[in-house]
């Protein structure tokens, strides 16, 4: 399960419906052009929290059907409705997804016992492995080393997608749990995380910059840090432009400029203005 995983974006049509042809093209682009090691499906970048359960299932089905066993697949099943999370976990497991992931439950400021119960409840109901999805900036849920240790006591919890700029905590988790999988979640910090010996990374910008992410990760593993820093620099130039222009919409426009039918984002995410579409085309020409 090591390596570079794209946090897969999803193609939606003008009315917010899943565009199957476009989604298949995004999957193929990631496998054939970006050459990533796996796909993280229905995460933040897939607009998971803007979709109905039926739409999420459709995405899981289409992606698995397109991928077969070409690359590893992780299904993000986290939902505030715990019954839905269990149902999606069972659904993705039956489809053959290699592992599950679930965002920490958010919005109601759950205490740690509640967070732990959420993961254990999902795992009691499914025969699959779990990667904790920790993204404090969006969920407001921060966990310390002891709390990660408690979650890791469940043998089915095999790792964490660590999307936080806390390299002290990342190092402590790495040191304490050499056998758990740690995926870096911030693409702009990939090199720093790789130096701390993470097992891989999961990121949105890999949809358009996966090849460079693979280079950074491989160079860091070979301790070729100066070369890795050069690639991270170009990567961060691109990421800075993407973030300034509108994250997911710009990734979609960059893909469209390369002939991939990446569609639109679901409301309430807004459309890019014409100026910003032109910016994205310029990014595609410059970086891709
Ligand atoms: O679940 C997911 O789609 C992710 O893996 C999210 C990933 O951590 C991204 N975070 C968000 C909030 O989109 C990053 O890849 C992020 O977009 C990137 O580092 C740019 O800041």
UniProtKB/TrEMBL annotation:
Q: Which GO terms describe its molecular function?
A: N-acetylneuraminate lyase activity
Keyword vocabulary terms for this entry: Carbohydrate metabolism, Cytoplasm, Lyase, Schiff base
**Localization per Swiss-Prot or TrEMBL:** Cytoplasm
GO CC annotation, single: cytosol
Q: Which GO terms describe its biological process?
A: carbohydrate metabolic process; N-acetylneuraminate catabolic process
Look up the EC number in the record and give it. 4.1.3.3
Q: Which residues bind pyruvate?
A: 202
TM annotation in the entry: none
Active site at: 133 (proton donor), 133 (proton donor/acceptor), 161 (schiff-base intermediate with substrate)
Q: Which Gene3D superfamilies match?
A: Aldolase class I (3.20.20.70)
Record keywords: Cytoplasm included?
yes
Q: In which pathway does it act?
A: Amino-sugar metabolism; N-acetylneuraminate degradation; D-fructose 6-phosphate from N-acetylneuraminate: step 1/5
Q: Record-annotated residues binding aceneuramate?
A: 44-45, 163, 185, 187-188, 204
Catalysed reaction, written as an equation: aceneuramate = aldehydo-N-acetyl-D-mannosamine + pyruvate
InterPro entries per the record? Answer: Aldolase_TIM, DapA-like, NanA, Schiff_base-form_aldolases_AS
Q: SMART domains from the entry? A: DHDPS (SM01130)
Q: Which family does it belong to?
A: Belongs to the DapA family. NanA subfamily.
Functionally, this protein is described as follows:
Catalyzes the reversible aldol cleavage of N-acetylneuraminic acid (sialic acid; Neu5Ac) to form pyruvate and N-acetylmannosamine (ManNAc) via a Schiff base intermediate.
| Subunit and partners | Homotetramer.
What is this protein called in UniProt?
A: N-acetylneuraminate lyase
């Amino acid at each position: 399960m090591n390596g570079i995983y794209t946090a897969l974006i999803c193609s939606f049509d003008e009315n917010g419906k899943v565009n199957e042809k476009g989604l298949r093209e995004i999957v193929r682009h990631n496998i054939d052009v970006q050459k990533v090691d796996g796909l993280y499906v229905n995460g933040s970048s897939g607009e998971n929290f803007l979709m109905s359960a039926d739409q999420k299932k459709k995405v899981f089905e289409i992606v698995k059907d397109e991928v077969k066993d070409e690359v590893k697949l992780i299904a993000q099943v986290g939902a505030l409705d715990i019954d839905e999370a269990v149902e999606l976990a069972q659904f993705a497991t039956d489809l053959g997804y290699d592992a599950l992931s679930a965002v920490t439950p958010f919005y109601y400021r759950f205490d740690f016992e509640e967070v732990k119960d959420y993961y254990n409840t999902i795992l009691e109901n499914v025969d699959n492995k779990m990667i904790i999805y920790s993204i404090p900036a969006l969920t407001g849920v921060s966990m310390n080393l002891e709390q990660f240790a408690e979650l890791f006591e469940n043998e089915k919890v095999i790792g964490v997608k660590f999307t936080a700029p806390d390299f002290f905590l990342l190092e402590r988790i790495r040191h304490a749990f050499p056998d758990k999988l740690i995926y870096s979640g911030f693409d702009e910090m990939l090199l720093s995380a790789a130096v701390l010996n993470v097992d891989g990374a999961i990121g949105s910008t890999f949809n358009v910059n996966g090849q460079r992410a693979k280079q950074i990760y491989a160079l860091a593993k070979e301790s070729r840090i100066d070369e890795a820093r050069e690639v991270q620099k170009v990567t961060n130039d691109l990421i800075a432009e993407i973030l300034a222009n509108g994250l997911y919409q710009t990734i979609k426009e960059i893909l469209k400029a390369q002939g991939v039918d990446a569609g639109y984002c679901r409301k309430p995410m807004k459309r890019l203005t014409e100026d910003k579409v032109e910016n994205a085309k310029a990014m595609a020409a410059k970086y891709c």
